[in-house]
Amino acid sequence: MNQKPIKSGLYYALMTALLVAMPLVGTSVAVAQASAPLTITASQPAVGEVSLVLGRAWLISESGRQAAVAPGTEVRATDRILTEANGHVHIRFVDQALVSVRPDSRLEIVQYDYNADQPALSAIKLNLEEGITRAISGHGASAARDRFRLNTPIAAIGVRGTDFVVSATPRAVRALVNEGVIVMAPFSSDCSADSFGPCLVNAVELTGSSLQVIELEGSSTAPRLLPAVVERGPGMMEEEVQLAMNDAQGNADDKNAGTGIYLESVTSQRVKDEAASVTSPKQPQPEPQPPTQPRPDVVDFTPATAIAGAELSQRNLIWGRWADGQAEQERITVAMAEASAGRDVTIPGGADYLLFRDGNGGERIASGLGTVSFGLASAQAFYHSDSGVATMAVNDGSLDINFDSSRFATSLQLNHSLTGNVQFSASGRLYDGGYFHTRSDTERMAGAVSLDGQEAGYFFEKQLESGNIQGLTLWDAR
């Protein structure tokens, strides 16, 4: 199969959060239909350029006009970058700063005055209205540390030359530092969103060497530091991801090749898991229990061993994974470079996976499909808790899609000795391009169907009273 660039799925409606740093905290993003091409006056200089786009994302000007983001799109002060549920945007700024905007996020470039002759006189301010972003400081922020600010809905973040990931909702903010130092403080009469630099009142500092995350909740008067229980490795995937993306693009001489792709990959998941898995150090941790042995008459759709890549590549839909952090537990995924070759990206599966479709760049679902019932072909699911990560059994499942009414309904039966029997269920709308998603207070999912309506796949997550379940599925039409 000939390789071609990774193309994003075109759909308007995946507007709810998939990759937020707090489990199942709502981060809905309102996305309007595409308007007329964005017009920008020549007097307003560009301060950055989009270097990578996965999925669907928009640039919204100060006047409210919006246009789809593409590699090479110029970014100016007062612009907003908005990503849909499958959107992921990288921006390289004029001072060589790198900013990654994750799915279901909204980032405003409030001010970006970089003084190349005297970098210490630069003034930079970003506003993460909602979602997740990773920022790697450039010359401006490094030289003018007291004149850099990243605002969130409830807190101000200043830096001292750093690489950090922030997740924000209207009610909470969490951050993790890969390198350098950040200072977080709640907004108050002493800490205005209009000012620059770190705030000093009720401020807490976090360094990249502290093995902690920092959190501020809306009811708190100051941030708190939480122990990091997941092994750090901020650079472990950079080389693999860059090679995968360049290989998928055939090393073409375009805006994406050779720009240095800095994906936060595990860090956004780490922010979520570390903050959710905090326990008192004085409390003994329970030993992980072996999974329940299934009864002979109970089918487990989780393969006993990983399905060979050659077998998976015969499918129309295939899951790609960013890295092999838990390779021994992977069952239905292949490396991202293999999954992306000759296929189009559809939806992200949590922080670690992408679902690819062999559609030759197409987005139109075949007509006259009616109602199709799918049988579960294979699945994998992991239970994340304070005890660690355990593989769950996926015993049964159903998926029905009515292509005429554009509706779907699905359910899964899962089991582990630590959780007992667990049911996941969801229903909702099928959107243009064959995409579907839904979320509630405790469950969320997003998936896609092949253009011929014969295969489907989705990522799912369920929050339990203690811990959460995340998994992937692949389905075949009956």
Entry summary:
The protein has 2 domains: 48-274, Jelly Rolls (Sandwich); 285-477, Porin (Beta Barrel).
Structural features, described:
With about 475 residues, the chain is mainly beta. It has two domains: about 50-275, Jelly Rolls; about 285-475, Porin (Beta Barrel). It contains five helices and 29 strands. The protein has helices at about 140-145, 240-250, 265-275, 310, 335-340, and strands spanning about 50-55, 55-60, 65-70, 75, 80-85, 90-95, 100, 105-115, 125-135, 150, 155-160, 165-170, 170-180, 180-185, 205, 210-215, 225, 315-320, 335, 345-350, 355, 370-385, 390-400, 405-415, 420-430, 435-440, 445-450, 455-465, 470-475. It has a 17-stranded mixed sheet that branches. Strands 22-23-24-25-26-27-28-29 form an eight-stranded antiparallel beta barrel. A four-stranded mixed sheet has the order 19-18-21-20. A hairpin with a 5-residue loop joins strand 27 and strand 28 (about 455-465). The chain is globular and about 65 Å long.
